[in-house]
Write a structure and sequence with these properties.
Layout (H helix, E strand, L loop, with lengths): L3 E3 L6 E4 L2 E4 L7 E5 L2 E5 L1 H5 L3 H10 L7 E4 L6 H13 L3 E3 L4 H10 L11 H12 L3 H10 L4 H6 L2 H14 L2 H4 L16 E2 L2 E2 L13 H4 L4 H13 L4 H15 L9 H9 L5 H14 L9 H14 L3 H13 L6 H4 L14 H21 L6 H28 L7 H9 L10 H13 L5 H8 L9 H8 L6 H35 L5 H59 L16
Parallel strand pairs: 3-5, 4-6
Antiparallel strand pairs: 1-7, 2-3, 4-5, 8-9
Amino acid sequence: MALLKLGSKSEAFCCEGQTWRCKSGLPSDITIEIGEMSFYLHKFPLLSRSGLLEKLMSESTKEDGSVCVLQLTDIPGGAKAFELVAKFCYGVRFELTPLNVVSLKCASEYLQMTNEYGEGNLVTQTEAFLNDVFGNWTDTIKALETCEEVLPHAEELHIVSRCINSLAMKACSDSKLLNWPVLENGNDNNTGSDVWNGISTGTKPQPMTDDWWYEDVSFLSLPLYKRLIQAVEAGGMRPENISGALVFYAKKYIPLMNRQASFKDASHAKSASTPSEADQRALLEEIVELLPKQKGVTETKFLLRLLRTAMMLQVSPSCRENLEGRVGLQLDQATLDDLLIPNIGYSVETLYDIDCFQRILDHFLLLDQASAAASPCIMEENQLVEGNQSLASITRVANLVDSYLSEVAPDVNFKFPKFQSLAAAIPDYARPLADGIYRAIDIYLKAHPWLTDIEREQICRLMNCQKLSLEASTHAAQNERLPLRVIVQVLFFEQLRLRTSISGWFFVSDNLDNSQNLSGAIGQHGDNNAQGRGSSIEDMRGRVSELEKECNNMKEEFQKLVKTKRRWNIFCRRKSQCNSKSGKPSEAATCPTLPKFH
């Protein structure tokens, strides 16, 4: 830490309670009152160094020779700063450090202690020392922290802006090249290595990383920290580094974000002073405004944690919309666990905030449509790469939506229109397989057995039966919760797929047979190849036989289902006829009928 020793005389003052006296033996002829502290001093050492004190003394001098009393309630730094000013005027030894130079600089300017009242006056001394402080990272941070004690005066003298500009310049530059003494937590401990018998026994310095300055500046108050972030952004710092610093600051001062920390960390956080919810809310809103806007710069996981905390702190609607838009911009990088944001409050219906997820998804789809409209035709190679990336992105989001629907489907308060809106928002081309949406629909139908037949039909239209895998098709064909029309469609497409596969294999088999006949005259080597092809043909025929058996089993299951439906209809008709003969009202209207298939 930088240090400047001023004065040469030994201590000549003593403090008794709220009284501060000079021990020179001469009677005091002036009393300076600052708050509750009274300084009994002498006029000449003071007026010879301070223009303001000279003016005040001349205005308050009394002819009767009584002691002059001055009130300096507005002096920057208060009684503590004036004590050092008095020592400087009397030539008493004291040390100028980064912790007191700002208050002394402001106090000396306030008292007009310029070179007009003595060479090497306090204004000149503090200014020169400040320039030395700005050359050191840790000293500059200490000086900036003390600016808050005299903030209006430090702002007027541009000390705050000079500190911030100095820190921003160092943070934006390569510390490895300039070799600045960056110290952790502001501790100015000597970490040099010890040498024994020509061998160094100390620890080697760790290589500097891009986050070397995060913790040092995290001790600044929010207004100063905000100005520093804006300064490093203007200085050309990479957005990833700015985002990293803001993430570090947010985790440190917003305890609600750290609820998933270990018990040890939680107990440590409780022992420390916890900011109020109002302070955390204000800090979170400022952090959101300062975060870089570029996609992928800030982790999606952190943005979702920030959004969840924002819900708990009840931030402003504009802040919440800002966060939802940022998450929507990179929704394809999110995970299901992070998207399951609990509903806050007592009047909510569903367990999770489904409306919030809907808004996030709308942001993503809006941006995806805008990017697709900007390049409707993919012609060049770079556009082809971008198109593939866009397709992969929306495919990941489709899988995420299907997983989300499967997770929230068991909630009995999850309304059918919301389920339909979320599932229908994803275009069909974004789902290469329909297994995910089928699973969500099946869970929803199981948790909501009161849905009408029309609603069941509508919800099943959300999946493309042609895109179901063999396993999902087998399950759907035996699923009693699905409408019969959907089961027939599944069986139809599965049989169509089976026929296509069989036709393709027979086509390949015929080609292989022809090639075998044409290669019969080629010698022993050709005979060996024909034998290999013959074995592959046998494998294909075996696979075809297995598929035919599976198809027959599916047909039998379907016929059993149709017979069950027909028996139920015959029972309903006979009961209706019996009721009509006995004079009882007909109940045929209550009997379900098979839908017509074409």
